[in-house]
Amino acid sequence: xxxxxxxGRRFGWLxxxxxxxxxxxxxxxxxFPLIAVQVLxxxxxxxxALSCAGAxxxxxxxxxxxxxxDLRRKRPVLIAMDLVRFAALLTIPVAFAxxxxxxxxxxxxxxxxxxxxxxxxxxxxxxxxxxxxxxxxLVANARFESTAWTTTIIGPPLGGVAIGLLGPxxxxxxxxxxxxxxxxxxGAMGGHEPPPRRRDATRMRPGDLLDGWRYIVADATLRRLxxxxxxxxxxxMATGPLMAVLMLGQLGFAPWQYGLAFAAPSIGGxxxxxxxxxxxxxxxxxxxxxxxxALRALWPVGLAFLGPGTGGLLLVIGVEFGLxxxxxxxxxxxxxxxxxxTTTDRVARVLSAWAVTTKASTALLTAVWxxxxxxxxxxxxxxxxxxxxxxxxxxxxxxxxxPLPEPEPExxxxxxxx
Length: 418
Hints:
Layout: H1 9-27, H2 31-38, H3 44-62, H4 65-70, H5 74-97, H6 103-131, H7 137-166, H8 168-187, H9 211-218, H10 220-238, H11 240-250, H12 255-263, H13 266-283, H14 285-295, H15 309-340, H16 347-376, H17 378-389
Subcellular location: Cell membrane
Protein name: MFS transporter
Pfam families: MFS_1
């Protein structure tokens, strides 16, 4: 590793583009439901459909795009996906200004953005692997993780102020502009990208659609990690709407207290991502991944004991801080493992299959837990999710995986530093 972990000018542009679009996304957090309710007077069923259907349909549409990305240079795909998201989001303020905005348009835009998001993530992972050496991937993923948590901390409060002053449509404009800036940043990277390995393939075959899942299932560690992250992420996210009902409704917390309870603990993710590499250096990648993955499952069950007042608020902050800290350590280590144990010509389809599985499962579990919350009450449903999460460490890899049998080509380095 170079002194100071300098990863090159091109990585600096990629990192900056990621941070810009991530900040725009968090500025517009919750804007679609607010527009649906305040502008289009949508009911609870329509708002729920907007949240779940957009993710599910977007995940389904993204299935063939993973193999498609693997057959192409990744940088043009990244720029294209940013421009697609920019154009799709920009239709909302335009339609609003013309008095033509409809719920169907919101739904279609959410599908397009979800599809482009999955494709962008798959292409960026594949591009990162050609850009950096294997020993630099953990540093890069830790930086992405710390940036994600930083924008989580500052984005929603700024977005809330903007919504209060200018309305939710203004934050959608900010989100759209962030994707345009991201595309410009990626375009400014310069340099040469190696061509795809499968240059002999001119078009996708039907069997390519499931190739990402076949690759994951064939690798015992990747398979167990997918099962673990799918169940863990789905159960954690499924309790989000129930926590809002419990805290803002039954327990009478103020909106600012609710926002503080979930924004302040994001500092734990920033700290965890900064510690990921030092911990791996000292204890080893497999040990850190398993221990952090197991510890993150212990926290959510504590939310079932949430009470009113300051004590309840401190309980939520403490539980979320511990959960997010462990996720901040686990996520970059897991992301690095995926890249290192996937051949270069399969990275995009593996990451696409991974994202499709987790997003679709999260949407389905959110819908299921919404029904359980109505039948059992939000507190009982949250407790049930917490108990099930205690079993997720059983799906973590039990032993370190062998390295890939094929040698990976050395990526060309570009002068400059990040």
